[in-house]
Amino acid sequence: MQAEAPQTWTVGSLVKWATDDFQARGIESPRLDAELIVAHALAITRTQVIIDAQRPLADVELAKLRALVKRRRAREPMAYLLGQREFYGRVFKVDKRVLVPRPDTETLVDVALERTRACSMSMRLLDLCTGSGCVAITLARERPTSRVTATDVSADALEVARANAQRLGAYNVAFVEGDLYAPVAGARFDVITANAPYIATSEIATLMPDVRDFEPRLALDGGADGLDLVRRIVADAHGVLVPGGVLALEVGAGEAPAVAALLSEHGFASVDVRRDYGKIERVVSGARPR
User: Fold this and answer.
1) With contact defined as beta carbons under 8 Å apart, do 139 and 127 qualify?
2) Under 8 Å CB-to-CB from 220, ≥6 apart: which residues?
3) How far is CA 50 from CA 31, 59, 82, in A?
4) What is the SS3 assignment for 76?
5) Which whole-number Å values give the CA distances from 27 to 19, 67, 246, 283, in the listed order?
6) How far apart are CA 134 and CA 127, in angstroms?
7) Mapping DSSP to helix (H, G, I), strand (E, B) and coil, where does residue 21 land?
8) Paired residues of 76 in beta bridges
9) How do the pLDDT tens digits run along the chain, 290 residues long?
10) 8 Å CB contact between 171 and 148
11) List of domains in the chain
């Protein structure tokens, strides 16, 4: 019997195959993921993916695409496959060394900017647990005359953050390795932002596999109730903030009331809770009394 002729893969047939495969595995937005993977692998736009649907794929292109599809099958985050994620209108490079920036975290930037409108042009900002640097770099670019310091315990994360700052022209950011406030002992800041780990240890296993199996646990695990680092940040903030300085914290779903109470207990004034795009109470902020 004559062997069946090998299938000729085209851009369109690869997109359909990947879409069907992702859908069968319960992956959200299967068509979008398939188109983004093809666009990335072929270095073309999503529009070109549609226009060039009938273009045959070379063997080297097909091998590259199949490798990416295999990684997505395993639930590796799209941001890691593409090597980037957009945040606040800028594209940040990301990989397995850092948490993938979320749209929810843009609310943290909004709050920090809004609550410091009256600060001087040379305001000093501190970003704790900076990860990819998305918050620190965004604040630095939005307030180009400010002086921003960003800390993280992970040297790997800081390597990613520094590369992002260089690429995005955020030259007014200093990245320092260390635990929370330790690297900035003696310094004072007008605003402190923190997207610290806030997921309870017992909830890690229930996370989506895209998060649980790939993103750094160090950036996720917030201890027994998710607030271990948040408590430390709040407890020591007065010694780092100038009078009237603002502390803004990203928190998990359902944690805002406890964190707002924590700020009040530590003497913060004008405590505020802000909802994210999904209407979840996401950012708690307060000011050190003058």
Assistant:
1) yes
2) 99, 197, 199, 204, 207, 211
3) 12, 20, 19
4) coil
5) 9, 17, 40, 29
6) 10
7) helix
8) none
9) 333 434 789 999 999 999 999 999 999 999 999 999 999 999 999 999 999 999 999 999 999 999 999 999 999 999 999 999 999 999 999 999 999 999 999 999 999 999 988 776 789 999 999 999 999 999 999 999 999 999 999 999 999 999 999 999 999 999 999 999 999 999 999 999 999 999 999 999 999 999 999 999 999 999 999 999 999 999 999 999 999 999 999 999 999 999 999 999 999 999 999 999 999 999 999 999 98
10) no
11) 11-74 (1.10.8.10), 99-287 (3.40.50.150)
Which residues lie below 8 Å from residue 255, measured CB to CB, with a gap of 6+?
198, 226, 227, 230
Report the 3 state secondary structure along 50-114.
HHCCCCECCHHHHHHHHHHHHHHHCCCCHHHHHCEEEECCEEEECCCCCCCCCHHHHHHHHHHHH
What does the pLDDT read at residue 120? 67
pLDDT value at residue 3: 39
Residue ranges with strand state E in 154-236 = 173-177, 189-194
- Under 8 Å between Cβ of 123 and 146: yes
Q: Which of 201, 183, 220 has the alpha carbon at shortest distance from 77?
A: 220
d(CA 111, CA 142): 13
E strand or H helix that includes residue 239: none
CA 288 – CA 285 distance, rounded (Å): 10
- Distance (Å, whole) CA 73 – CA 68: 9
Buried b (16+ CB within 10 A) or exposed e, 116-131: beebeeebbbbbbbbb
pTM more than 0.85: yes
Per-state percent for the chain, helix, strand, coil, to nearest 5: 45, 20, 35
Total Cβ atoms within 10 A of residue 83: 12
Size of the chain, expressed as the number of residues it contains: 290
CA geometry: angle 268, 274, 276, nearest 5 deg: 145
Work out whether the CA dihedral 168, 140, 220, 273 comes out positive or negative: negative
